[in-house]
Every structure is written in C-alpha cells, then in structure tokens.
C-alpha cells in the first residue's frame, strides 16, 4: 500500500474522531476545540490529496483553509466572550 | 530518501490519529487541550516534512511547491498553539472548573443519598 494513501486514511480517521467529539462535547469550548482540530486535520489532508492527485492547486486551498480556520475560532470565542463580533 | 519520506508520512499520520483519539477519550476539557495543541503541531510538521522530501526526490527543481508547503507548515505552527491558548483562556475566564477526582466523588455522594 502507498504510504501517502495510508497517511491520508490515518488523518481522515483522526478527523472523524474529532468530529465525534464536536458532536458529543459537553461544553461549548469542547466543540470549538474539536472543530479547530478538525480544521488542522483538513489542512493536512488537503496537502496529502494534492500530492496523491499531483495537483499543486490544492496547496493554495490548504493555506486558505488554515487561515479561515484560525479566524473562525477567534471570532467564535470573541462572540461568546463579549456577545458581539466587533470591539 | 523515499524510505525517509515514507516513514515521516506514516509517523505523522499515526501522531495525528492518536492526537484525535486523545481529544475523543480524555475525561475533561483542560486535559483535552493537551493532545489538541501538541499532537497536531508535531503531526503537521512530520507530514509536511515528508511531502517536501518526496517532492524534492521526484521532480527536483520546482521550488514553488516547496515554498507553499513550508508556508502551510509555518502558518499552522503559529496558529494552532495560538488558537488553543485562546480557547483555554476563554474557558478559564468563563469559570469552567477543572476535573479532579475529588469533585467527581463529591458529585457521586450528593447524587447517591
């Protein structure tokens, strides 16, 4: 079996576990943490898929996904702390 | 070179999977922070290092892809600990109590009679 494919399957399984925690999570912060972990796994998966299919355009999508993931986490936390998005 | 990149990719996949398993199985929010923050940072470093080695091995001269991969790695290495710190700070400021053996014992005692 190809090593890239096996690594992609492992990362996909990890993303599935983080998704389960984001559904189960007892508190709001558990869910935000699990969604953040899911986003990091998605960035890794996009990079590996770009190498499996030999398409370097997937790396741009991975950069964009990482940036949006960080901004979304910080915006959610800000919204919960203060009740609004802008200061 | 091929074997090193294979080993890095498989090790990165294993670390990513075990970190997510820790996020699923840990008993408490504050203990879930530890696999989420550290395992992901190590896993993306290993996976992207393996991909960089594989790309340098196969084609050799296209440095744009290597630059993009290093940009992804640096971006994740900055943002993942920052996001974890922001989540833990928000939870601490909102008054979420850490899990201890004693607090669960007290809850069981209150529930049992």
Taken from the alpha-carbon principal axes, the silhouette of chain A is: flat
Structural class, judged by helices and strands of chain B? mainly alpha
Gyration radius of chain B (Cα, Å) is 20 Å
Mean pLDDT of chain A: 89
Number of domains of chain A: 1
Order of helices and strands of chain B: HHHH
| Biggest beta-sheet profile of chain B | none
Which regions of chain A contain 5 or more consecutive residues with pLDDT less than 50? Answer: none
Query: Roughly how many Å apart are the termini of chain B?
Result: 65 Å
Low-confidence stretches of chain B: none
Helix tally of chain A?
A: 3
The strand count of chain A comes to 0
* Percent of sequence in beta strands of chain A: under 5%
Secondary structure: number of strands of chain B: 0
The fraction of residues in strands of chain B falls at under 5%
What's the arrangement of secondary structure elements?
The complex is a heterodimer of chains A (87) and B (113).
Chain A: H1 3-24, H2 28-52, H3 57-82
Helix pairs in contact in A: 1-2, 2-3
Chain B: H1 2-25, H2 29-58, H3 63-93, H4 101-111
Helix pairs in contact in B: 1-2, 2-3
